Amino acid sequence: LNNREGKGEPPALAALLQIDLAHVLRHAAAPSIGPWEDEPAAVHAFVLLAQMAALDAGTALVDQVEAKRAKSAILDALNGLCVHDGGWLRHSSLAGPDATDANTVLGALLLAPDKTPFGVTDPRIIRTADHIEEWSRRVFPIATLARPLVGRWATDDYFGCHPLLPTSLW
Question: How far apart are CA 77 and CA 52, in angstroms?
């Protein structure tokens, strides 16, 4: 949006934003298909982070009571994905404790740089990125400390089980 009220935007764009934000409010923290579309419906870290980013960006366009309720549900769900002994986030509610996914860090990048909690400076997101780099060095011989190439998740066999450039570039 050009400004916080959405003024100056074409009416069709403003209407589309209203529809999208209403959808986020109705379905905040609900099970969904994840960004890679490889799993059944679950609560996915990436989707939760994208929902939070949408509500933050559209704050002036939504009912504040509903936004507060939705953000609270999203934060509860994200906290539920934390692996407390390791400090990282599992990628979904169906994932085991070691199942991190690059899409979680990609989701954190959608938030404002100084966003807390769960922004890129949050220790849990940093630990998630570290965990992804750790398993990537075990899985991909080409990945080293000097070349921190990463895949989507540790058991991913997309394109023959190689690092993926979009996830590596973050």
Answer: 11
